Each structure stands twice: as C-alpha cells, then as structure tokens.
Amino acid sequence: MTVLAVTLIILAGSYLAGLLGSLTGLGGGVVIIPLLTLVLNVNIHYAIGASLVSVIATSSGSAAAYVKEGITNIRLGMFLEIATTIGAMVGAMLALHIQTSVIAIVFGLILIFSALMSLKEKKEHINQHKSQLAEKLKLNSHYPTQDGLVEYGVVNVGGGFFMMLFAGIISGLLGIGSGALKVVAMDGIMRIPFKVSTTTSNFMIGVTAAASAVVYLQRGYIDPGLSMPVVIGVLLGALTGSKILVHTQSSQWVRWVFAVIVTFLAAQMIYNGITHKI
Questions:
Q1: How much is the pTM?
Q2: Which residue, of 18, 81, 97, 124, is most buried by count of CB atoms within 10 Å of its CB?
Q3: Residue 268 belongs to what domain range?
C-alpha cells in the first residue's frame, strides 16, 4: 500500500475509534491500538505512542467544556493526579522492558474489563458522608443540576488514591486513558456521583497520558507521521460523538456495539500475544 492509502486507513479507523470512545466515555485508545497492531502490523510501542498523543488531545478538548460547566471536581482531580502520574511513569518504563506479547495479553484483558464497564448500568448516587481526610484536603464539592447545586461528600480517599496508582501504571503500560479504572476508583470506591466521576476522569487522563508520553518520546516511539492522522481522526470522531449524544435519548445500543467490537479485538490481541505474533 502507498503512504496515502495507509494514512487514509489510519484516519478512518481513528475517526471510528474517537466516535465509539466518545459515545461510551472510555476513549479511543482501546480501538486505535488493536487497529494499528492487528490490521496494519505496527509495532505495539509505536501504536501506544500514537494513542497517548491522541488521548492528550481529546482530553484537553473535552475537559475544558466540563470544567466550564462546573461538573469537574478540579481539586480532587489534581490530588489524584499525583498517583496517576507516578503510576504512568512507572508503567511507561515497564512497557519498554516487558515483552510485547505480554503487553498484548494484558491489553486484551483490560479491553474485556472496559467492555463490561461500558455495559454497566449507570446509577447516580449522592453520598452525604464525608471522611475527615476529605474534609482536610477540601475534596468535597458540588455540581450543577436543573434543580440547583447538589453537594456530595468523598470517602475512602486512601483506597481511591491506591486505585489511581494502579490506573496510572495501566495507562503508561498500554497507552490508554484507563478511564474505566479511574471511574471505578471514584464512583465505586470514593462514592462520587457518576457524572462527576466521568468528567473528572476525562480531566485527568490527558495529564496521565502526557507523563507516559515523555518516556515514549525519549525512546523515539512517537512517530509524527503515525500520530498526526490518529490525532485528527480521533478528534473529529469525538466531536461527532458529542453531537450525537446531545440529540439521542439513549446510547445503550451503541454500548452493545462497542462491547462486541472491543471483545472481538480483545480476543485477537490475547491470541496474538499467546502465539507471539505481536
């Protein structure tokens, strides 16, 4: 294939990845990396590098809108970024010393987890309990609704911080935003409202990816020729997805499509990892 044909394929695939990632809230990296490695036989380290750049771009764009609306808990996000940034640096350095086949298998398992998370019914719960540590760090906050501001408390700060460390390692190791793990930490462990969890996660993943990208850039694994069409495609797809969400009542069918595609890709990644084809 010519360079133009490959670029157009990457652009189209990245657009689809950004669209699905935007509609499900899990980001496009879970589709981009299998596309590059399985379809185009790109080295997984270069695929991870391109994915990290796209995560930075999409997070920067969408996070600004959520911050403006007052939904994102900025103070909590900056506190938890301490853990995810440390984890991301550790994960990125580990990725350079672990066999690519092992990375592929771990990536496949995380894909399956992400697919299950995308199908989980999202229930908005308001936690009124406030831990002493959250009070001292001023992590409790509020977010706007049609009925006015809703206040919520934060609990299990230590557990959430530890989970964020793990999420950062996975992000650096696999080149994805690991939004599913971040939401688990905030929504499941720290008992933060789901809307706040997803928007704060989106605010954080760009910083996490940037920390990992530094390591990949130093090792020469970020190729501008590969990263450019990926970033453009993902940004356009994410923009389209956000517009679709505004005009649709339910995206459950999209989540099922996403889950089926991601599960198939996960099976392929695990198989190729076990057979050492990656």
A1: 0.81
A2: 18
A3: 3-274
